[in-house]
């Protein structure tokens, strides 16, 4: 049993079958990559895991509990954090505040009326946020406004915001898409570092094969909403079905 | 001190000092001088500064922090006023029971309106709040006449029970015998200062309101509210439910508005439906934006500014203008007076409108931003020449949420 179990998930948008009978199992402490041509349904699948979309049929079990019908903040509280295709951060807040917020969310839950406490007096939480920023080499930028960061640093910050919650599962949707080369390398290094230093389960959608093969323990290939194959990276590389799916798309 | 950092404590102490010294600070010109009409240190106006300051401070907790723009906060102002006058009628002229109840009732009212309106965001939220406020206004005029006394407005009559009022109790609003409209006048060689009980009562309330807002700004709760304004998607995917946060902010700002409304009736024992009209809701929006939404002092400055214009600029008429420019040759004098004419007296709205546009266009951070810019300019002058031009394009530090 994996920590995440997706069984028989279907999702239609009008006449379009975006997901057709998807089964997926992600084992604890592994990195599971989901690849596939454009429009294969990768993002749709991910959105079904975090409560943004509700599948038409099928079940999604996380850590022994169904996530279906739960709101995004409830699913996060179960232990799933998500990194977006374009970094979603609190642009008007400082870098440190960006990391403080997930710390409070983790400690206090979805809502708490802490109007008469003072952020600066929460020593433990501030220390933890600063430690996290140090881990991703951003402590020197703690006082900066988050919207003034470079694209790569925004991604780094978003990652820090997710990691500081110590999620049981981290989902990443094309973390390097649309990035300059330097920022891409920067992000890949960070991902490798996370994998090496933390016991974390990750599901990652990625187009960059270099990233995928250097990170993933297992790979699922999705095409037209259905998983074609699932295997270890070495087996996926030369798999005829995979070649077909990508080549069939290319012309 | 007071659970604040050294910097915030200093800030609070300055605010307290300014508030307590207002009757002196606003009387800079000696009585009888030609500039005396710019003095604003009379009780009625100072009370308004404090009361609308409270209103705007509360509104800022909702609008400045979360970005939810309510166009219906005057409804709570009206609720507060009606509550206080009713307590006068039933219990007596002591303001305390009424004020406490006005905060409680406006909170309940805000909970209801907020619960429904906050199902939408952006312009739809604004429209919903506006609709609720206009509904309250119209109800106050029609169906609810038994409670609100309709067009006449609610007031105290001799036949009212006033069960707690003893035989010797004051016959106007008071706090345990301290009569609100009592004043002490001090004449210091031409300068006349009026120290009014009502003003000092409002001032204490305003300081309290400001302190609470300062604490909220520095709290995790306040940080969550700012996070909502910036990015609700991230908020939700970080495990936070934004709805109760916005609702709490809405209710708190409603309580501030209720207190402000209550204080209006505590200064002048009347309550009318026009207090709930949309123009009154719009006014607090203008105050907050003009002063600087999301800043601590901005709303208070904005409130003071608008009330000053409304009461002082509107009193300048052609006669006064002629007086000022009498030293000029007649033709030129008439010309200049004609130029100023549209902007003063009844034209004060025009001046305020132009000022508002200038602020929104050139100072998006409001008057507070203007003051910060001037302050920075002064400091740069002192430290010798402009700073070097940041050749590496270092990212700027986040503006501090103070001042
Ligand atoms: N909200 C929606 N409404 C209608 N159709 C949608 C919606 N979201 C996705 N689709 C369609 O579903 C299909 C799968 O989309 P999805 O975004 O999941 O693909 P993807 O694998 O993430 O592609 P890419 O690599 O381009 O990101 C596409 O054909 C897309 O147009
Ligand atoms: Mg996608």
Automatic annotation (TrEMBL), chain A:
<protein>
    <submittedName>
        <fullName>ABC transporter ATP-binding protein</fullName>
    </submittedName>
</protein>
<dbReference type="Pfam" id="PF00005">
    <property type="entry name" value="ABC_tran"/>
</dbReference>
<keyword id="KW-0813">Transport</keyword>
<dbReference type="GO" id="GO:0005886">
    <property type="term" value="C:plasma membrane"/>
</dbReference>
<dbReference type="InterPro" id="IPR003439">
    <property type="entry name" value="ABC_transporter-like_ATP-bd"/>
</dbReference>
<dbReference type="InterPro" id="IPR003593">
    <property type="entry name" value="AAA+_ATPase"/>
</dbReference>
<dbReference type="GO" id="GO:0005524">
    <property type="term" value="F:ATP binding"/>
</dbReference>
<keyword id="KW-0547">Nucleotide-binding</keyword>
<dbReference type="InterPro" id="IPR051120">
    <property type="entry name" value="ABC_AA/LPS_Transport"/>
</dbReference>
<dbReference type="InterPro" id="IPR027417">
    <property type="entry name" value="P-loop_NTPase"/>
</dbReference>
<feature type="domain" description="ABC transporter">
    <location>
        <begin position="4"/>
        <end position="249"/>
    </location>
</feature>
<dbReference type="GO" id="GO:0016887">
    <property type="term" value="F:ATP hydrolysis activity"/>
</dbReference>
<keyword id="KW-0067">ATP-binding</keyword>
UniProtKB/TrEMBL annotation, chain B:
<keyword id="KW-1003">Cell membrane</keyword>
<dbReference type="InterPro" id="IPR043428">
    <property type="entry name" value="LivM-like"/>
</dbReference>
<keyword id="KW-0812">Transmembrane</keyword>
<feature type="transmembrane region" description="Helical">
    <location>
        <begin position="350"/>
        <end position="371"/>
    </location>
</feature>
<feature type="transmembrane region" description="Helical">
    <location>
        <begin position="197"/>
        <end position="217"/>
    </location>
</feature>
<feature type="transmembrane region" description="Helical">
    <location>
        <begin position="284"/>
        <end position="309"/>
    </location>
</feature>
<feature type="transmembrane region" description="Helical">
    <location>
        <begin position="123"/>
        <end position="144"/>
    </location>
</feature>
<feature type="transmembrane region" description="Helical">
    <location>
        <begin position="50"/>
        <end position="69"/>
    </location>
</feature>
<keyword id="KW-1133">Transmembrane helix</keyword>
<dbReference type="GO" id="GO:0005886">
    <property type="term" value="C:plasma membrane"/>
</dbReference>
<dbReference type="Pfam" id="PF02653">
    <property type="entry name" value="BPD_transp_2"/>
</dbReference>
<dbReference type="InterPro" id="IPR001851">
    <property type="entry name" value="ABC_transp_permease"/>
</dbReference>
<protein>
    <submittedName>
        <fullName>Amino acid/amide ABC transporter membrane protein 2 (HAAT family)</fullName>
    </submittedName>
</protein>
<feature type="region of interest" description="Disordered">
    <location>
        <begin position="382"/>
        <end position="403"/>
    </location>
</feature>
<keyword id="KW-0472">Membrane</keyword>
<dbReference type="GO" id="GO:0015658">
    <property type="term" value="F:branched-chain amino acid transmembrane transporter activity"/>
</dbReference>
<feature type="transmembrane region" description="Helical">
    <location>
        <begin position="97"/>
        <end position="116"/>
    </location>
</feature>
<feature type="transmembrane region" description="Helical">
    <location>
        <begin position="244"/>
        <end position="264"/>
    </location>
</feature>
């Amino acid at each position: 049993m994996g920590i995440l179990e997706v069984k028989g998930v279907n999702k239609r948008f009008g006449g379009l079958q975006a997901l057709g009978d998807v089964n997926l199992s992600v084992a604890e402490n592994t990195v599971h990559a989901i690849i596939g041509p454009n429009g294969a349904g990768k993002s749709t699948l991910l959105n079904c895991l975090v409560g943004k979309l509700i599948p038409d049929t099928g079940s999604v079990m996380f850590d022994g509990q169904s996530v279906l019908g739960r709101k995004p903040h409830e699913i996060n509280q179960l232990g799933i954090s998500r990194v977006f295709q374009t970094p979603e951060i609190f642009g008007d807040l400082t870098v440190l505040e960006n990391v403080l917020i997930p710390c409070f969310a983790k400690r206090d839950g979805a809502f708490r009326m802490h109007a008469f406490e003072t952020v600066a007096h929460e020593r433990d939480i501030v220390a933890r946020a600063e430690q996290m920023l140090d881990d991703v080499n951003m402590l020197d930028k703690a006082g900066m406004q988050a919207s003034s960061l470079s694209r790569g640093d925004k991604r780094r910050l978003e990652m820090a915001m997710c990691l500081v919650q110590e999620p049981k599962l981290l989902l990443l949707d094309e973390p390097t898409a649309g990035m300059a080369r330097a920022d891409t390398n920067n992000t890949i290094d960070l991902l490798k570092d996370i994998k090496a230093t933390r016991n974390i389960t990750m599901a990652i959608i990625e187009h960059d094969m270099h990233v995928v093969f250097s990170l993933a323990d297992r790979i699922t290939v999705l095409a037209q909403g259905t998983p074609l194959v699932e295997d270890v990276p070495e087996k996926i590389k030369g798999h005829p079905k995979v070649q077909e799916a990508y080549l069939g798309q290319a012309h | 001190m007071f659970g604040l950092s050294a910097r915030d404590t200093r800030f609070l102490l300055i605010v307290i000092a300014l508030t307590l010294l207002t009757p002196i600070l606003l009387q800079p010109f000696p009585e009888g001088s030609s500039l005396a009409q710019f003095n604003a240190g009379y009780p009625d106006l100072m009370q308004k500064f404090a009361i609308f300051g409270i209103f705007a401070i509360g509104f800022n907790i909702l609008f400045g922090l979360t970005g939810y723009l309510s166009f219906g906060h005057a409804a709570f102002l009206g609720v507060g006023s009606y509550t206080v006058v009713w307590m006068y009628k039933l219990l007596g002229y002591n303001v305390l029971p009424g004020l406490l109840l006005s905060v409680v009732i406006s909170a309940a009212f805000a909970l209801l309106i907020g619960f429904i309106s906050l199902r939408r965001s952006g312009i739809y939220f604004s429209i919903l709040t506006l609709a609720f406020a206009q509904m309250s206004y119209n109800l106050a005029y029609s169906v609810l006449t038994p409670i609100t006394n309709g067009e006449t407005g609610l007031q105290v009559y001799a036949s009212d029970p006033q069960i707690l009022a003893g035989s010797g109790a004051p016959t106007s609003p008071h706090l345990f015998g301290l009569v609100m409209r009592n004043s002490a006048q001090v004449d210091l060689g031409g300068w006349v200062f009026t120290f009014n009980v009502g003003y000092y009562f409002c001032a204490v309330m305003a300081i309290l309101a400001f302190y609470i807002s300062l604490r909220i700004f520095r709290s995790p709760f306040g940080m969550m509210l700012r996070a909502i304004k910036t990015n609700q998607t991230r908020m939700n995917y970080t495990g936070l439910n934004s709805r109760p946060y916005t609702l709490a902010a809405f209710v708190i700002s409603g309580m501030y508005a209720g207190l402000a409304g209550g204080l209006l009736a505590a200064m002048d024992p009347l309550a009318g439906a026009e207090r709930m009209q949309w123009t009154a809701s719009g006014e607090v929006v203008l105050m907050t934006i003009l002063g600087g939404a999301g800043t601590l002092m901005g709303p208070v400055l904005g409130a003071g500014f608008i009330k000053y214009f409304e009461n002082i600029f509107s009193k300048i008429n052609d006669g006064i203008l002629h007086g000022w420019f009498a030293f000029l040759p007649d033709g030129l004098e008439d010309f200049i007076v004609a130029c100023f004419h549209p902007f003063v007296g009844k034209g004060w709205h025009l001046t305020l409108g132009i000022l508002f546009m200038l602020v929104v266009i050139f100072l998006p951070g409001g008057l507070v931003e203007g003051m910060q810019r001037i302050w920075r300019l002064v400091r740069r002058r002192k430290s010798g020449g402009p700073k070097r031009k940041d050749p590496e394009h270092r990212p700027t530090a986040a503006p501090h949420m103070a001042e």
